[in-house]
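Regression report. Comparing outputs from two consecutive submissions.

Submission 1:
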Amino acid sequence: MNMQYEIAKVVTKNQITDEEINKELALLSQKEWDEQCALLDKMMKEHVKENLINHTGKLAEEIILQDLTNVGAANNVSKTTLWIAYLKWMEVEYSSR
């Protein structure tokens, strides 16, 4: 059992199998994942900021899940797989600063 996967499944409210996550992670090159994660990062920050400024009433969690769903669907991967890729990307992105 991969605990990171289990946490991602809980956060994204998805019951995808570990095997399916591994298959989806292999669908994109590292460069493609980096591009998609950078896009997701920008979207989430903008949407959460917009929500805070405009008080739209949407929970940040709902906004983030919608962004994960949209970007994942555009790349034929689940929101759970995208979340895992994003967390890995963030670790690299922020450790290199």
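Submission 2:
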Amino acid sequence: MTFDKWFNKQSRLIQIILLLIPFVNWVVEILVRLSALLRKPNLVNALGCVFGIIIPIFGWIDLVWCLLFKHLLLCD
């Protein structure tokens, strides 16, 4: 099982807790995005991976997105 599928199967509470902790947020985001990119290499996953690595504030945007849609922004 890939890390992105594992993350999406977690309860919303676990996802939010992982995304609330600052350094853990960034590590989880990178792992989920790299896993999604390796599993399904497309433009959406590539952009999400680049934005997740380069823009640290993107993790907080993902927190809100995860609250609304139960997955990370730009993670197919």
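Expected: both submissions complete independently.
Actual: both completed, but the second showed a warning that disappeared on reload.
Relevant detail on submission 2: The CA atoms of residues 16 and 69 lie 12 Å apart.
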